[in-house]
Amino acid sequence: MTTRADHRYTGYRYPAEVIATAVWLYFRFPLSLRMVEEMLAARGILVSYETVRQWGLKFGRDIADQLRRRAPQRGDKWHLDEVVLTIAGKKQYLWRAVDRDGFVLDVLVQSRRDAKAAKRLLCKLLKKQGRTPRVLVTDKLKSYAAAKKDLKLGSEHRQSRYLNNACEVSHQPTRRRERHMKRFKSARHAQRFLSTHSPIHNHFQLRRHLISATEYRDTRARAFTIWREVTGLALTA
Question: Which residues form the DDE domain (predicted)?
């Protein structure tokens, strides 16, 4: 084991490598907390699934925020979509925005599926992205057009059920996680988890099918280098 140098890990029983690996496994792959516990146990690291959960809460959001700040500027063509989540027996709506390459720009869990909810998503996007999109692509839900009009956006708005495949596909990792987690416990739980999951998923979304094997390995190596930097592993000796 190496010596911890990052102040975030001070006072923890296990070193940064173990904690960062647990967080990476949980948010990167569709694994339950108990699965991560077992994978660590197979390597002689005895922690409970509750410990893994606490590590995710403590370090996951900070890591995600740093990865988001380091991410390159995303495309100016935004795909917006919403999908139903059943949480504690009630319908909630997961609103999601991705760019043309499928990178998640933001997610927002809301109880409504109307113009007010669509406007809230757009306001959040405009604030985080710091610019107006060139093109908005949505399905034919009228709430998007109403929100765009209310915000006086000059973006081109394309509405079609056939043009929004990029956003619809991006819901798949969430569905997989939802199954392994036996559904989200609350809207707050879903928002907190997905806000952390999305930047980590983006970071390791390397688009392997579009590049050569050599380029893929180089890109993956750079992704892990950045991961080590934001988790503090690059500081260990």
Answer: 76-205
Residue 172's closest CA among 152, 201, 199, 192? 201
DSSP characters for 178-229? HHHTTS-SSHHHHHHHHHHHHHHHHHT---GGGS-HHHHHHHHHHHHHHHHH
Q: What is the pLDDT of residues 201-224, one digit of tens each?
A: 999 988 777 789 999 999 999 999
**CA proximity to 81, closest of 143, 130, 155, 156:** 143
Domain boundaries in the chain?
7-70+206-235, 77-193
Q: Is 172 exposed, middle or buried (0-12, 13-18, 19+ CB in 10 A)?
A: exposed
Q: Which residue has the tokens 């490598």?
A: 17
Q: Where are the beta strands (DSSP E) in the chain?
A: 77-87, 90-98, 104-110, 135-138, 156-159
Q: Which CATH superfamily is domain 77-193 in?
A: Ribonuclease H-like superfamily/Ribonuclease H (3.30.420.10)
